[in-house]
Write a structure and sequence with these properties.
The complex is a heterodimer. In chain A, helix 2 (54-93) packs across helix 8 (197-221) and helix 3 packs antiparallel against helix 4 (113-129). The termini of chain A are far apart. Chain A has helices spanning 2-46, 54-93, 96-111, 113-129, 132-162, 164-179, 183-193, 197-221, 225-233, 238-272, 280-289, 293-320. Chain A contains twelve helices and no strands. Helix content of chain A is 88%, strand content 0%. By secondary structure, chain A is mainly alpha-helical. Chain B is of the alpha/beta class. In chain B, strand 11, helix 14 and strand 12 (313-317) form a beta-alpha-beta unit. The model of chain B is unreliable at 401-405 (pLDDT under 50). Chain B has two domains: 9-279, P-loop containing nucleotide triphosphate hydrolases (Rossmann fold, 3-Layer(aba) Sandwich), CATH 3.40.50; 283-397, CBS-domain. Chain B has a six-stranded mixed sheet with strand order 6-7-8-3-9-10, sandwiched between helices. In chain B, strands 2-1-4-5 form a four-stranded antiparallel sheet, with helices on both faces. In chain B, strands 11-12-13 form a three-stranded mixed sheet. Chain B is elongated. The chains are: A mainly alpha, B alpha/beta. Chains A and B meet through helix 9 and helix 10 of A and helix 4 and helix 6 of B.
């Protein structure tokens, strides 16, 4: 009697765990194994009889998007292009000393003396290396990409923190966006937005979106439950909860995300030169074509300086914002 | 003794159940009284946190809910401000049932009527002390100058003025909890829910906080539901105590009732290491007053009486029945030797007496100086009983006193 009572739930528990966590992935693995081996087999004997035409599907999907959402893409394209070109024009219009002065003021205000000295020295070095204009073009591209990324990414992160379902459903996409070789984005970006700077910005946005979404989500989820409970005990509304507690407490984490988007965007800026984005990336690409080591190295070095300046400023800003 | 004046019920808890799990309602139906928590979990997959709890909290009292961790006390108190909704049963605050309230009404109750203090303070780390205290007012969109003014007032009340510009992590634990208290008081709530507010503090600070808290509560009269796992704390602060075990109330009563008449085996075990002398009041161990004599009597009569009594001393009362002190054989002999005629003429310097609502801890030093019994007098110095040494010792030992009967 006792044996029976004790034995039954254990078995049930085991099977239910088995069903929940193992059954589905196991079936997927088995099924795909069967398909692949079958496909492989047919490929051997019949000379390419069976192949998953995934490439064709993607092509078809992209063509469908192009056919049906052309106006939407055009609107995005034009508005991004306007913002970007104005931003670029503005940075190029400013004399170099004005830009350095701005960097000085901002870095001193946001991050303190040491970072300010470092930043000014770095910018001055870029000037001396003679790549000022190209650097400004890259900076403009990056700035617009960072802006768009955060405008999309932070709300997405908040939504993910509030809804488990949303978090679960975007997770595979975020994984894919992060792991997928970044060249791959360039192709659809090219198809939707043509050649030039706009698809470059879009590719940058896709590439750098995951960290800010993840870190915003994480930051909000890590707000201690006790504090959330306290806020409720004092009669907070959901909006007040977000604005007065969750976002401020998660700010350090969110700033890390913003910092990451800047870094990743700068990295992507070089690749974006492949679709005629201009700037320092183009310089690197050209020197690659001409096997001009020196020229490529100098351009690369300028990107590193830009990255370090922006990284130091945003990082110190992040830790200061904890307060 | 406000409890005897038919006080107003502030919080009424009626057959409250709280079950966590996939199918809480069904769990309530399916269990019977004999099952333990573990059996219920295995059988139904649900955890019964609060099990059929009913009681009333009266206006102005400190009601302590006391139990070990996992007894459901924290869950119960969260039902009082709607952080948790009871699975079954009703919580009625000032006649209004929380279950019938919408989100908005509930928010209003939390903003104006019930406030909460947390075990680990739950201060907002990104806000200054001033902004922490003003938080509740900020949620009500009260303008900055007004809410800061109020926050400063409350900070003064908990003697933390001067710290308002600091951040919580710059304060010690005791100070942080004072901020937590100030944050609740800033809303001027009628009810204060305190979830083990002093448990995270070290013992010395805790005792100091108890004193400050008792003092503060004489300044701001609130109805308080106080959660504790420390029986000494409960005894010290509580007007009434509810002892919880496995989600059920084991006993409700004043500290004295619980110590003197534990209602169950569990409570017995619980109170075994409590310092009884701090809890038991003189009133509950005193016996009927023995023979008293008026000071208008003459010494000869007194001598006869004292020789006839087994007691070696007599309580002397004045003309209105007020207690004057005790005399023993030696005193009377001395009086006779000095040619006094009446009792009132001899100098009575043995004034062993105590009030009925003082604890027996306070009785011990008096008893130590006295030879036999200590008189119990009320506020008009009227003689209402006595405590013989034997009775005190028995009370300290914990053997039940049947002397009154």
């Amino acid at each position: 009697m006792q044996n029976k009572k004790a034995g039954k739930p254990v078995l049930e528990k085991f099977t239910s765990i088995f069903q929940k966590s193992l059954y589905v992935p196991l079936m997927v693995v088995v099924a795909s194994g069967v398909i692949i081996s079958l496909g492989g087999f047919f490929n051997e004997v019949r000379g390419g009889f069976f192949k998953i035409p995934a490439g064709k599907w993607v092509d078809f999907f992209v063509a469908w998007l192009m056919d049906n959402f052309k106006p939407a893409f055009d609107i995005i394209k034009v508005s991004v292009a306007v913002v970007l070109s104005n931003c670029e024009k503005f940075l190029l219009w400013l004399p170099w000393w004005a830009v350095i002065l701005l960097v000085l003021v901002f870095s001193f205000w946001l991050a303190g003396r040491r970072v300010a000295i470092f930043s000014v020295a770095g910018m001055y070095l870029i000037l001396l290396l003679g790549l000022w204009d190209l650097s400004m073009i890259t900076l403009a591209l990056m700035a617009v990409a960072v802006l768009i990324t955060n405008v999309i990414g932070i709300p997405m992160g908040i939504l993910a923190a509030k809804s488990d379902l949303f978090e679960k459903s975007i997770r595979p996409f975020l994984d894919a966006m992060q792991v997928m070789p970044s060249f791959v984005y360039l192709i659809p970006a090219l198809m939707f937005f043509g050649i030039g700077r706009v698809p470059a910005v879009m590719a940058c946005v896709i590439y750098s979106l995951p960290p800010v979404v993840r870190l915003t989500n994480l930051g909000i989820r890590q707000v201690p439950a006790e504090l959330v409970e306290a806020a409720h005990a004092f009669g907070t509304t959901q909006t007040q909860l977000l604005l007065k507690l969750e976002l401020p407490v998660a700010m350090a984490s969110i700033m890390t995300g913003v910092n990451q988007t800047i870094m990743m965007n700068l990295g992507m800026a070089v690749l974006a030169a492949m679709i005629a984005a201009g700037g320092l990336g183009r310089e690197v690409l050209l020197s690659l074509g001409q096997i001009d080591i020196g020229r490529g190295f100098v351009a690369g070095f300028c990107i590193v300086i830009l990255a370090m300046v922006l990284d130091r400023i945003t990082q110190v800003m992040g830790t200061r914002l904890k307060r | 003794m406000s409890e005897e004046e038919n006080p107003k019920v502030k919080i009424s808890c009626k057959n409250v159940w709280k079950v966590f799990g996939a199918n809480p309602r069904q769990a309530i139906e399916s269990i019977d009284d004999t099952m333990t928590k573990k059996e219920i979990l295995e059988e139904t997959g649900n955890v019964i946190a609060v099990k059929d709890v009913s009681f009333d909290v009266h206006e102005g009292e400190i009601f302590v809910v006391m139990g070990l961790s996992g007894s459901g006390k924290s869950t119960l108190v969260r039902c009082f401000n709607g952080l948790y909704t009871p699975t079954k049963g009703n919580v009625i605050i000032d006649g209004a049932d929380l279950a019938t309230m919408g989100k908005k009404e509930l928010r209003m109750i939390r903003r104006h009527k019930i406030s909460m203090v947390f075990q680990h303070f739950a201060l907002f780390p990104h806000r200054t002390i001033l902004d922490n205290v003003a938080y509740g007012l900020e949620l009500q969109n009260i303008e900055k100058s007004k809410r800061y003014e109020r926050a400063m007032e409350v900070l003064e009340l908990v003697s933390l003025n001067g710290w308002e510009k600091n951040y919580p992590d710059e304060l010690s634990g005791g100070m942080q909890q004072r901020v937590g208290l100030a944050r609740s008081l800033a809303l001027d709530p009628e009810i204060l829910l305190m979830d083990e507010p002093f448990s995270a503090l070290d013992p010395l600070i805790r005792r100091q906080m108890h004193e400050e808290f008792i003092q503060l509560m004489t300044k701001v009269r609130k109805t308080i539901v106080f959660i504790s796992h420390d029986l000494n704390e409960a005894m010290r602060l509580g007007s009434r105590i509810a002892i919880m075990k496995d989600g059920k109330i084991e006993q409700i009563g004043t500290p004295e009732e619980i110590v003197c008449r534990p209602g169950s085996e569990y409570v017995c075990e619980f109170i075994s290491d409590i310092s009884r002398e701090k809890v038991i009041k003189v009133r509950s161990i005193m016996i009927e007053p023995s023979r008293t004599i008026k000071n208008s009597l003459d010494l000869e009569t007194a001598l006869r009486i004292i020789k006839g009594e087994k007691n070696e001393q007599l309580f002397v009362t004045g003309s209105k029945g007020e207690s004057i002190g005790v005399v023993d054989l030696e005193d009377i002999d001395k009086g006779i030797a000095l040619n006094h005629i009446k009792l009132s003429e001899i100098n009575i310097n043995k004034k062993y007496h105590i009030g009925p609502d003082q604890t027996i801890e306070e009785l011990i030093p008096i008893m130590a100086a006295c030879d036999n019994s200590v008189a119990v007098v009320d506020e008009n110095r009227k003689f209402i009983g006595e405590v013989p040494r034997k009775v005190l010792l028995k009370a300290l030992l914990g053997t039940e006193n049947n002397h009154a009967k």
